[in-house]
Structure formats: structure tokens, C-alpha cells
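Summary for the steering committee. The consortium agreed at its last meeting that each partner would contribute one worked example illustrating the joint modelling workflow. Our contribution is presented below. We chose a case with several input lines so that the handling of multiple components could be demonstrated. No manual editing was applied between input and output; the record is shown as generated.
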Amino acid sequence: MTEVISGTAPYIYVSTRMRVRKAKLIPREEYLRMLNMGLPEFTRLIEELEYKREIDELSASFKGVDLIENAMSWNLAKEYQRVIAMAPGEMKGFTRDYLHKWDIQNVLSILRGKELGLSDGKIRAVLVPAGALDAPTLDRLIAESSNERIVEQLPIKQMSAILGEGLSEALETHSFGKIENELYKYYYETLIKAARGGMKGGLPFLKYVMFEIDIKNITTVFRMRAQGGDNASQQNIWIPGGAFKPEELERLSNIESTDEVVDSLKKKIKVTVLLDALESLREKKPIYSIESTLIAAQLNQMDRFSKRNPFSISPLLVYLERKKYEVSNLRAIARGKEAGLASEILEKYLVM
Amino acid sequence: MAIESLTVEAAQALASGYTAIGAGLAVGLTGIGTGLGEMSIGAAAVGATAEDRGMFGLALVFTVLPETIVIFGLVVALLLLFV
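What follows is the complete predicted structure of the assembly.
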């Protein structure tokens, strides 16, 4: 199909559509209501939402919470593909690059699933074909006989090269952590390169990517601190390109006092939302609560970016992220209710 | 005498010519302004309506708001030509 791009109108059109879609996402009050529902009531409510079509499509293959979970993943993948198709000009390229992280997640899920000896169906159930690798390609990869064959057959050559280098070590140690770090470093490097490529709209995208890198690194600092013990083996886990250098992050992860870590982080952070979030981390919290706080700060800052740059990639990215967390929240509620978790505990896991 | 009469006629012709140009500019330039304004609002209005058909009425009202600019231009042009 021939694409006709003329002036700013297509950007305004798509940005507005994304804003309307974001406004239609489930609000905080609705989540609180869902937390007080029983599983059958919650299931009925989900069937009335926009996930109905996917639930109908998959109802022959899955049932119960598995059906809800798979329907939501499938809805997310389809929605992301629709957004890519809708995005005009440079926005399409940035969106594709941004959604590339789903390829990393999917390939790692396949490799981990194969390593653990899971069935093809179980591996398929956790995949979200929202990136460049579509469902048939992922199916072909799942059908491969070994992890080496999967890496060889991977159509994204840079990913294939990174996986090829570290695969034997990962298989020996039964840990894909190192490969995962390398893949995410390559992912963020690609994003920064695309944003600095001189394309129109690159600056808001670059700002957002750098902010996301900071959030990822700060989360890793707190995770490392929560794990405790010797942190010497953490080398190369930090993602370069943000406000902090890897050496600084390494130092921060080894400091015992939380106040000192927060003070050091605050010296380099200028974003008000994140400063407030960091301030709230002074009190002792479990790691999942810290992660939720940082994710909420990230989403709020993205909202601010999208208001400052209303007709840029920002409204689109905000929608993609908010949609991801909507699905993640609903899955958490469904699984939590199935496991009989109390509403108060479940609430702490939600990003609202 | 002939020269003076010619000059008055020329002046009148020149004045009506300038009036016509002024009227044309008033409508033309405000038309361009309206178009530029409506371009952005129209794109946003179509985007919003594509997602939610209930927004059609409101979107339409917002889209035609810049029409006032060209109406002002038209009024100025009519005043120039007929008053």
C-alpha cells in the first residue's frame, strides 16, 4: 500500500488516537473494584471488556485463568501490531525499534522453555508476538530441535550473533542472565542510535530512552541490594547510555545505607517525579514494591513527556507502556485470585 | 482640463482596483489561516472520532471554529466592496 505522508497531520491523527485509547484503559478505581471481586465475577468482567474477541478465539484451546492470560497476551500482540501499522513516517521506525524488546523476551522464553524441557504448547502460551518476529516465525523457532538450531534460524542477525556467542556458556551454567543482559544492551544501543540518527522527532524519543535506561539501572541497583552478598559478579549488567556510569552504579549497589544510595541517586536525577519516588524508597520496602514505585514514576514521567510533545512519538509510547501494564495487572489479579491471595497483597503488585 | 479629468478617472480606477485587491487579500489570507488551523484540528478530530464515534459532534464543532477567521475576512471584503 502506498503511504501518503503530508506535513504534521498524520502525526496529529495518530497521537490523538493513542490519547483516546489511553483514556479508555482501565482506571485505578476499576482495579480496586476488581480486587474485591471473586474469580468468576472477575472472569465475567474481563469477557465484557475489549478482550472478548480473543477469549472467543482461544476458548477452544484454553480454559479458566489460562484462557484469560492467553487472550490478554494475544490482544496485546494484536494491538501492538495495529499501532505499528497506524504509525506514520519516522514514528513507525521508532515504534518498531521500541517493540523489538518483545523479540528479545520471546526468543529468551523459547530458549529457557526448551532448556527446561517444556512442551511446545506451554512455551507458545507465554509468548507475545508484538515485535518483528510474528507468530508463524515464533512457531517455526519453537519447532526447532535444539537451542543451537533456534539461534541459527533466528531471522534477526544481530540477535543471532549475540546469542551465538553466549549460548554454550548459558547451556553449561543453565543461566541465560548474561545473554539477556547483552541483548538488552544491544536493544538500548539500537534505540539510542535510531534516536540520534538525525530523524525528525528523535530528540523526544532519545530523552525517553535515556530515562527508561535510568529506571532500569536504578531498579537493578535496588535488586542487587535486596539480594545482598558479594556483588562482584555483577559486572556488565548495567546498561550504558543513561545518567549514570556503570562504575557509579556498581558502587551504589555495594553501599549498605539506603539513605546514602537515595542521596547519591538524587544528585544526578533532575526529573521531579523520579525524585519523589526515590524519596519514598528511603523506608524499607520489599523489592516488588520498589519496582512498582519506579514503574509508576516512569509512566507518570512518560505522561509528562507526551504532554510536552503532544504530536511526537511520546503519546504512542505512553499508550504502549500503559497497555502493557494493564495486561500485566489483569494477569496478576487473575493469577492472584486463582491462588487465593488477599486483595491487600495483590494491590501491591499492581501498577496503577 | 482633459489631463485633470483623466487623472480623476485614473485615481478612481486605481482606488477601486486597490479595494478589490484588499478584498481579495482579506478573503484569501484569512482562508489560508483557516485552512492551517483546521488542518491540525481536523486531523485530531478524525483521530478522536475514529476511536470513539460519540465524539463526532464535538469534534465537528471544534473543526469549524477556525471558520470564524474566514468569515471575518469575508465581512471585511464585503465592507470594502459595498459600503
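Chain B has a mean pLDDT of 91. Chain B touches chain A at residues 39-40, 42-44, 46-48, 50-52, 55 (CB under 8 Å).
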